[in-house]
Structures are given as C-alpha cells and as structure tokens.
Specification:
Blueprint (H helix, E strand, L loop, with lengths): L2 H8 L4 H9 L3 H7 L21 H10 L11 H7 L2 H10 L5
C-alpha cells in the first residue's frame, strides 16, 4: 500500500468529504422508492428526510441488502460495490456519522 492509500484508509470519513458523493447515484431512486421520505442528497433536513434523520432505517436497508436497489435498468448494486459503499458507510456510521 502506498503512503497515499494508507493516508486515505486512515482518513476520517465525513458526510462532506465522502458519503455525500457515495450516496449521490442513489438519491433520486431512493426519493421515488420512499415517496420522498428519505433524501440521500441531504445530510439533515427540517422535514426529517435527510440521511442523518433516517440513519437507522438506512442502516437496516444496507445491512439487509435492500439498499441500494436496482432500478430503471441501472445496476446500482454494482455501482455501490465498486465504490466500496458498505465499508465506507460502516466506518462513517461507527464514527457517529459526522457531517
């Protein structure tokens, strides 16, 4: 592992520096699937639809494998796997999902 890769693997994961971009491909699909109840493009909202507002439900969906779901002919599960989404989410969640 190079020093750069080691620095990245030890870097703090935040909403702003990592997770917002990781969730971005799934935001529209999740809005549609939840009738607007979960907005993966926002950290937190006054309406309670952001990621931090729904972290427990999102965690359950990720752990069960129901998120991300494939939709509209897009293989979101492959995109998620390539982005190492679950491992990044797990690290971010364990750190208290910092903004």
């Amino acid at each position: 592992m190079s020093k750069h890769e080691d620095d990245l693997s030890n870097a703090a994961i935040t909403w702003t520096n990592t997770m917002q971009a990781v969730f971005q491909p799934y935001a529209q699909c999740m809005l549609q699937a939840t009738g607007g109840a979960i907005d993966l493009s926002q950290y937190s909202t006054g309406a309670g639809t952001g990621v931090a507002d729904n972290i427990g439900s999102i965690r359950q969906h990720i752990d069960s494998g129901s998120m991300p779901m494939n939709s509209g002919g897009v293989d979101y599960k492959a995109i998620w796997a390539k982005a190492n989404g679950k491992a990044l989410f797990d690290r971010w969640y364990a750190a208290g999902y910092p903004q």
